[in-house]
Amino acid sequence: MTKEIIKSIIQWDIRSWSKALYYWEEHINADEINNGLELGSMNGGLSLWLALKGKSMVCSDLKDAKKNAEPLHLKYNVTSLIRYEDIDATNIPYENCFDVIVFKSIIGG
Known about the structure:
Blueprint: H1 3-10, H2 14-27, E1 35-38, H3 45-51, E2 56-61, H4 65-75, E3 82-86, E4 100-102
Parallel strand pairs: 1-2, 1-4, 2-3
Helix pairs in contact: 1-3
């Protein structure tokens, strides 16, 4: 991955979170993932990461998920793989629907 893509995925505290990204890249078998949910997406970086791997994603935040995240996804031409929803992470309206759920720093933000 290029530095620009890593910055787009991680978005802030890149030095720390890029270590997690490299770990996930090494330990997650992307072939076993078809769809995922990103909680607390802010600008949709983790949805971008999985959409770039061809995975269908629900990109969510407490409010304004599409407004905040779609510009990044448009930049990388992955919007066809992403659906946007406003979801409260303490009341997720799905059960047993996703192969992976991703988030970072949604508690106490």
